[in-house]
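Protocol step 6 of 9: fold each sequence in the batch and record its structure tokens directly after the sequence line. For illustration, a two-sequence batch is reproduced in full.

Sequence one:
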Amino acid sequence: MAVSAIIIRSISMLFRVMLTEKTGAEGIGLYQLVMSIYLVFVTVSSSGISLCATRLFTELSAKGKPAQARYAIEKCIVISFIIGLSGGTLLFFGADFSAGFILHDTRAAPSLRLLSVSLPFLAVSACIRGYFCARRKSLPTSAEQFIEQIIETGVFITVFSFYHPSDLTQACCITVAGTTSAEVVSFIYSVICYRIDIGRIGTGREKADSLGRKMLPVMLPVSANACLRSGLSAAENALIPQGLCRYGFTQTMALSQYGIISGMAMPVLVFPSVIVFPFAALIIPEISEARAKDDYSSIKRMTEKMVESSLRYSVPVTIILIFFAVPLCEVLFGSSEAGKYLSLLAPVIPFMYLDSVVDGILKGLNEQTSYFIFNTIDSVIRVLLTVILLPVYGIYGVTAVIIISELLNTAMSVWRLVKVTSFRLSLVKAVILPCLLTLLFCLFAAVLPVIGTKASDVTVKILFCCIMYGIVCILSKKQNCRKITAVKKPG
């Protein structure tokens, strides 16, 4: 999953670079506004039912009831289609209201209508991904996301090669048309993979007892959280350009600044998470199965390993991006301003990545209610801070909102995880040593002479820091294994 995610995110990053070239910072800002509304409907249509499918199939299979597990998945697929169709209908007829009243930019309405067509297909695909997650099969899901990204980028390149839009409204419609096409194709692929795999379990079906009572406690908190948090996130995204206008920017400048942060700096910030997020998704069925068997020692051991690994990975990523943010964004987007914002936001990476891991563990532990409460608090505070800080501090208010939000959300989630698992963590091994090692390698790379072009120079130096840190980690692990072996030997 991590390898495929790297490829998929790389294609997505290429897509961002091309979108910047074709539409500029203002075009990316408009696209991000459209996607902020669309993601509300995506999360509501997919998040709850996907987790529900994973949890139900895992728990029924762990109890030796494959026929009931198959029945549960089929019901989840039907429900997902109904939810997606309802969401698509609502988005289609509410596009003008969303664009005019929420986003304050009527240019977004045609793109929202195009995206509404994808929601039924997306919802079913998400449910099937939940099934494959429970089956511990990452290849179908990874291949589906790869196909989806290829189709989206391919449609964008093809249409822009033969047609030059006259304004940003048309350009945004072309961009989202690729997204809708990709969702339809990935739906077809997902259904084919599901039909092949489910047949290997058997053809028998058995009605699961109290299926509704099992689904609702899982589905409702997650769906409600997704609905509320996505709605507040959309409100926040809509308020950002308005807040920047009150600070003194023109509408074009405000949309461009918003596009630089959300469409350039944030994708680079999130890109390295391709290593962490697959583990955060796959830990859900493992924790859920251990919980079904009352194996709390395994839960504690997995939690400690996941948290430590997340920090030992994310801390070096933070140091590297702080050092190389500006030249990296200049190479990717031709924008040193995006690099400046990236370096300001890089310190939140350990909290952002850790939060995704902790959320996955909490979902496996049936802690959806805590997850819902924490994310609701976080989203409300983000909206309030956006209203208060942006008119006073401008674009730096945006970075402050992101930093405060990530710190708060992670602190609440970790507090709850400590309470339910009593896990322990060595800050020296997980944070201090990785920070010092990476800092040393980055300082050494910074004093090296320029290697070729700017692109090759920043690439080689980042790779150098990553490889050196990886070598130290491997050598350290081997040394620890030798010590353990020596202790276990008699006498």
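Sequence two, same batch, same settings:
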Amino acid sequence: MLASRLADEKRMNDLLTELNETRRTESEALRRTIEAKNETIAAKDAAIKAQDELIAKLKTKRSSPWKRIGDILIGVGAAVLLK
């Protein structure tokens, strides 16, 4: 009876060791997933910041009214030549 109980305890100990290792592996995988998610969010935030900076730069870089009038006159001249 003691030998049977010892065998049961050994099997239970092996199963608990395997369960502990599985949980450790799963925990590490979740940790890596969270790190990857955080890196993705940081990259997205950097891209949004770059776009915002570009938008601000383009807003300040408006063309002058004379340049716009010149572009319109070039378009009109091209239309007259094509007719």
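Proceed to step 7 once all outputs are recorded. Observation for sequence two: Residues 2-82 form one domain.
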